[in-house]
C-alpha cells in the first residue's frame, strides 16, 4: 500500500504541470477567482470589467469626440497578428495615436486584442445593462507624453487608456476584420510562435472602431488580465461593431495546445502571403490519414482539424496519447478523492458524450479522449474575466440619455436593424422616418380639404 502511495505521489509531481498549466488562465485552479492569490492587485477596488447601466451613469459634457492620428497608417507601419496563448493579439508598429475624447494626454496605440465566448450570449468582458456580447475588442494605448513605452506605463496610475468595442452578430462579414481573421489559420498553435505580418493597407485603426465614436462611457479601472494594474482610463463605446457568425467561429477555433511540445521554437514573423508556404514546409511529413483515423470519432477528427495538425502523424499521436493519459490519470485521482475542485461531470459541455464518473478507470473509452479535448478547448474558447464590483466609482457618459444616436446609415450601415427590449426586430430607422413624413403630409392634406368644404 505504501509503495502505491509513493507511486501515485510521483505521478502527481509528473503531471501537475498538465493540470495547473500557466500561472493564470480562464478556468479551473488558475481561473479568475484565483488570480488574486498570485497577483495581489487583482483584488483591488478599481478592477475591470464592470456592468455598465446607462441610467446609473453621469453625463459629462467635457467628454468630446476622439481624434485618431495617422490613420490610414504612415509608411513603414506594421500590423503583426499573434496567438499569445490567451487571445488573438495584433501588435502595432508605427505612429498610431489617440487624443481628445476627454483624455488629458496623447496616447500611443500599442496593440489590440479580443475576448470571446463559446456562445452568442456571452464572451465580452464588459456588460451593457447586465447583458454580454459575443465578442469584445480592446485597443490598448499608453500615455506617450510621460512614458517611453507601454511596459513603463502599465503599472503607473496615469499610464494607460483602453478603448473597448462590443460586437453584435450580423448577416454579412465585416471587411475591416477580413485580413486579421484570415491570419487565424496560421497561428492556432501558440507554441510555434509564428507571427503574421499583414499588409499595411489591410487594417485601419478607425475602421475597427464603431461608426459612431461620439457616444461612450468612461470610468477608471484596471487591466482585465494579470497583473491587473489599476492604471486604465476606460472608454467603452455605446455603439457596437459587427461580425458575422462565420467570422466569429474563426476566433473560437483559436485553440491552445501545450502538452506535447518538447522544444520551444524561435519566434518568426512572416508576411501573410508567405504564411501558407511556411506551414507547408514545416509539415512535409503529412500524408493521407483516412486509415490512420479509423479508430477516432468524427468529433475527434474535427478537433484535430481545428488544431491544425490533422495529417501530421507525429503531432496527432503525441496529442492523443497525452489526452488519453491525462484523462485516465484524472479518473484515477477522482477515485482517490483528489482534485475535488475540478469540474464535475455534469458541468461539462452538454455536447460531450460524458460517461466518465461511472466508468471503470481501466476501461478508457474513446469518449474520454473526446472529453479531455473538449475540456482543453473550453479554456481558450471562453477567455473573458467576469465583471467586478464597482465600489465607489462613478461611470460617466459623453451623451445625454434623451439624445438620439448619430445617424450612421451613410457610414455603410444601411442594412443593420436593431433589437428592441422585448426582443422584437424593429424597423429600419430610415423607413420609420419616411413613414412619419407621409403620415404628416396626409394629415395636412385632409385638413386642407376640410377647410375648402367649409368655405363652400
Automatic annotation (TrEMBL):
GO terms for molecular function: carbonate dehydratase activity; zinc ion binding. It catalyses: hydrogencarbonate + H(+) = CO2 + H2O. Keywords: Glycoprotein, Lyase, Membrane, Metal-binding, Signal, Transmembrane, Transmembrane helix, Zinc. Residues 1-21 form the signal peptide. It is an enzyme of class 4 (lyase). The keyword Transmembrane helix applies. InterPro entries: CA_dom, CA_dom_sf, Carbonic_anhydrase_a-class. Pfam families: Carb_anhydrase. The keyword RNA-binding does not apply. The chain crosses the membrane at residues 437-455. Its EC number is 4.2.1.1. Residues 22-284 form the Alpha-carbonic anhydrase domain. Belongs to the alpha-carbonic anhydrase family. This is carbonic anhydrase. It comes from Elysia chlorotica.
